[in-house]
Amino acid sequence: MNQARKISAGLENALKNLVKLIKAVQYYPPSHPTLKNSLNETARSILTLIDNDEELICSVRKDGFYLEDEKIGPRNPILAKLAPFLFARRINHLMFLPDLDINDLQAFARCLTMEATEIQKMGGIHELLMKARVSTIWVNMVEPAQYMELKKELDAEKEKYAGEREEEEKPEQQQQQGNELSDEERSLEKVLRELQREEVDQRFRYLIQEMTPHIHLNLTENGRPLILEAIKFLAETAASGEVSQQRRGYCVQALEQLASEDILDFLVAILCSKESWEALRESVMSALVSLKGKIVVWRLMDHLAEESDGQVRKSLAQVLIRQGTAALPVLCEYLGDDRWFVVRNAVAILGEIRREEATEHLQTVLTHRDVRVRREAIRALTKIGGTNATGILLKMVTSEDSEMSRQALLSLGAMKNGAAVPTLIEVIREMKNTPTTADIKKDAIKALGEIGSEQAVPLLTEILHQKSFWRKRLVDDIRAAAATALANIPSSQSADILREVADDSSETVARAAAKALKQLKRNE
User: Fold this and answer.
1) Pairwise CA distance, residues 147 & 55, whole Å
2) Which of 146, 163, 254, 401 is found 20 to 30 A from 61 (Cα to Cα)?
């Protein structure tokens, strides 16, 4: 590996450590050993890249980090999230000096935990770093002339106020140390193993609180098995009837806290990776299903909208479907999205969840501007079924949109809901035998046959006995459809009627009647 590649790989590692440090600053008090270790590890990984008196400079763009023109970690999902995170905070260039100070690194990470809008209200990231007297990390300044004088002033201030700051921090540190149950850092694995063995609820609660930040800090390939195991343990305990209600509540609360963007994106990245094997995908899907809250559905829907790989899309959709009723409110929000394909995704998933409370929301997209959304809405209503869905589809039968009308008829047949029969009979009776209505009329007759209700036999008999010199072929096709429909309504009356027309003068009708009689016998 040449020098340039070493620096590139080293910088990728340093930036990953910076992500861990930002999380550690959020979750741990200043004196906590985990935070101290994260600070030291991040500082070491940066300083190993700095030779003599040369500073380390990298560019920050929305799409990633660059060392001159080379993109750092182009396939690294952690860096792919960090770059826009820094870019949103108006950081275009990031520079670390050879005398990098641990306190500067901690102050820098703490500034980054603030919302981008809040940073701008306070004068920007540069102003915040100046107020924190950070002199060994510089943003958007790459020329010595830009920062050297400021650095001298800040270093002088640091030296002047070092004693005062130390005295101010002592009481706070003593209080924090008094609140800590242990001074040694415990790994995620150790905490998880202790949690699995713990019998006292109050201690169990403390261990969960301790484990949560460890999960955030272990979003790596090596940490993946433990993270999946931890989430699985929490989910199983939350659903167990063999533990106390209090303990189940602690686990539910932890699962809600773990439904954060960084953890969700980490899990989705595994799901989307072509290198993930089937068992791993299933474990990740189970973990994602265990995490509850609107943010889970939002992140999954966003990834589904951007993903082009069919297999990955299927996996994302399955997770959303397995979320069940909990996903309904957010999915219904997406029905108003401007992107037709996002609306279609939401409609399809609502159909697979098959909850009747979604029908009224699906009705709103039956007039969507894109026909693909309208088709999916009818399919979804068909899968959901029930009285409300049947009523909505019956209204669609008389729609001016002939394609939607035909699809609604076919769906009603597939649903086999006898409540639709009276309306279908009425619709068929009102339709004249014209070229513009023939196909819809045949679809309505087919739907009656698929429902299989004896209520339809008198109307089908009437149609079979119709004769016409005008549009004879068209009428015979409709009569043949009635014969085919009778084959699905097992009764002696159906057989008698079909035998009557088995030798009809119309070859089309006679053939359909003969075929229907054979089917009736097979169904006996």
Assistant:
1) 12
2) 146
Burial of 377 (0-12, 13-18, 19+ CB in 10 A): buried
Q: Write out the two tokens for 468.
A: 């016409």
Find the Cα–Cα–Cα–Cα dihedral 381, 383, 389, 395, rounded to 10°: 60
CATH class of the domain comprising 399-524:
mainly alpha
Distance between CA 91 and CA 80 in Å, rounded? 15
User: How many residues in total does the chain contain?
Assistant: 524
Element (H, E) at 327: none
pTM of this structure: 0.61
**CATH 1.25.10.10 region(s) of the chain?**
259-384, 399-524
Q: pLDDT digits over 266-310, tens only?
A: 888 888 888 888 888 899 999 998 987 888 899 899 889 888 888
Q: What pLDDT, in 10s, does the model give residues 330-349? A: 999 999 999 999 999 999 99
At 232, which amino acid appears? Answer: K
The phi, psi pair for 76, rounded to 5°, reads -85, 115
199-223 per-position pLDDT tens digit: 888 889 989 988 887 887 777 777 8
Q: Encode pLDDT of 303-339 as tens digits.
A: 898 888 888 899 999 999 999 999 999 999 999 999 9
CATH classification number, 259-384, choose in 1.10.10.10, 3.40.50.10860, 1.25.10.10, 3.20.20.150: 1.25.10.10
Q: Are the C-beta atoms of residues 94 and 60 closer than 8 Å to each other?
A: yes
Residue 341 is encoded by which pair of tokens? 């394909």
What tokens does 497 get?
Answer: 């009627």
Cα(10)–Cα(384) distance, rounded to whole angstroms?
54
pLDDT over 60 at 420, yes or no = yes
